[in-house]
Amino acid sequence: MAPIAVTPPVEQETSSRLTAQGIERSLAKTAHSNASPLTTKLTHDSLTHPKTDSGVHTLLPQLDASLLQTTFTTSPRPVPALDSSERASQKICTDHMIQAKWSENSGWSAPTLQPYGPLSLMPTASCLHYATECFEGMKLYRGYDGKLRLFRPELNCNRMEKSATRIALPTFPTEELLKLINKLCATDGPKWLPRDEPGSFLYIRPTMIASDAALGVQKPKEALLFIILTCFPSMDDRKGGMKLLASKDDMCRAWPGGFGYAKVGANYGPSLVAQGEAKAQGFDQILWLFGQDCIVTEAGASNFFVVWRTREGQLQLVTTGLKERIVLDGITRRSVLELARERLTMGGCAGEELEELEVVERNFTMKEVEDAVDEGRMVEAFVTGTAFFVAPASLLHFRGQDFEIPMATEHGGRYMSIIKGWLKSIMWGMEGMEQHHWGHVVGED
């Protein structure tokens, strides 16, 4: 196999160091939200604050949810039926959205809750030319106990700040972003997720774009944060499992020292051609590989897991590690790993008749997958993410050969199914899980 070109080690180390320094400088701009007054003054005076005509440094406003200005819609939108084509279209949003503007000279403006509608951008806006855009994917759940919930939303907010700083967008106090998300959910959630539809959800899309109208390759001086809620179909309940097409030698989604760990638009646009070709050939997603050894990374935009037995007989749950930052630190991924370590290791499977297993985060290759299938050691495989949630994989196609993955039932393997059940119980506040600390209850306006 021809090797995939990567940045030479010395050059990569230098560029990575420069990127890290730039990110550290950006993160320092929010130091006053969690640092001592003295540290705040030194950090901001030396790094971020412009001087007035008198030479005195001024403190730029941070994102502050308490300043939210509210304008309710006068033209409320109808809520589509759960099984309607409108809901499945992924184009229907709720009545309101939240916006907040930032500029290099004036900091963050007061955020606004306003009627959902189009944005106004100049054709020279940075995001339209240089992919200066990042986002998050979350869900608002209507629980079986009647409550609205978010699932570990603080992790999404923390990850969004990391994504923003990776592409030279402004930082923000993550707790303020969560407050704004919570407010939008509390405003539109009761209408769009009525109490008589438990088990339903809305998709939450916080987004930040560089709105700077200056056409030039430079750090943006203006940005826009917005949050929307949209109707979204369930994508995890299909029967038969997903069919994955392994990427070819001329494809590469992410690389060490790059930005594969960040949820930025530049990670997604270049993958769409391959994704379209995979679907045209009858597959559901691309299984992205990296390098000469064909390291398994992600399945489409989802994290990928296998359950297999080593040649020595040890049962393992394995997924690609985060050390090289070539896969996304998925919230569902992290939750699967934490639940598996807590309940599937060291003495059994929480009352289930399942063998305990070892949880492993490391790079693994398609050759290891091939061998596990050929030698009868593969137990199951599945993908995780906000959109697909937890979904089984039933087939991998690699270099002209199909590798069938065992499935205990048409809905997936036994380990995947029990983990998925635990997650659903937390997300939807099912009996015994109403007070789980991963479930963030949203008050209803």
From TrEMBL:
Reaction catalyzed: L-valine + 2-oxoglutarate = 3-methyl-2-oxobutanoate + L-glutamate; L-isoleucine + 2-oxoglutarate = (S)-3-methyl-2-oxopentanoate + L-glutamate; L-leucine + 2-oxoglutarate = 4-methyl-2-oxopentanoate + L-glutamate
Top enzyme category: transferase
Segments of skewed composition (Basic and acidic residues): 42-54
InterPro entries: Aminotrans_IV, Aminotrans_IV_CS, Aminotransferase-like, B_amino_transII, BCAT-like_C, BCAT-like_N
Cofactor(s) needed: pyridoxal 5'-phosphate
SUPFAM superfamilies for this protein: D-aminoacid aminotransferase-like PLP-dependent enzymes
Chain ranges passing through the membrane: none
GO molecular function: branched-chain-amino-acid transaminase activity
Name of the protein in question: Branched-chain-amino-acid aminotransferase
Organism: Lophiostoma macrostomum CBS 122681
